[in-house]
Design brief:
It contains 4 helices and no strands. It starts with a helix and ends with a helix. It has one domain. The chain is elongated. Helix content is about 65%, strand content about 0%.
Length: about 70
């Protein structure tokens, strides 16, 4: 596998820009690894409620749906 030194010559950039490019590259590597782990761990157990939570409905949800539908 090629290293970053093989791919880019950062010596032409100012020091602050080199740090920024290296930090962004490390961020991308971290995020890529994190995404791969999430895909393998949660492939079978992924649910929308994991992202946004679940609703707690007081009363009869079906009756309320029918009432709202009938209003149309």
């Amino acid at each position: 596998m090629a290293t970053t030194a093989d791919l880019l010559d950062l010596s032409v950039l100012p020091a602050s820009s080199r740090r920024e490019v290296r930090d962004f590259y490390q961020f991308l590597l971290y995020r890529s690894g994190k995404t791969k782990k999430m895909k393998t761990q949660h492939a079978a157990t992924y649910r929308f409620s994991d992202l946004c939570g679940k609703l707690s409905w007081k009363g009869d949800a079906v009756a309320t749906q029918r009432k709202m539908r009938d209003e149309w």
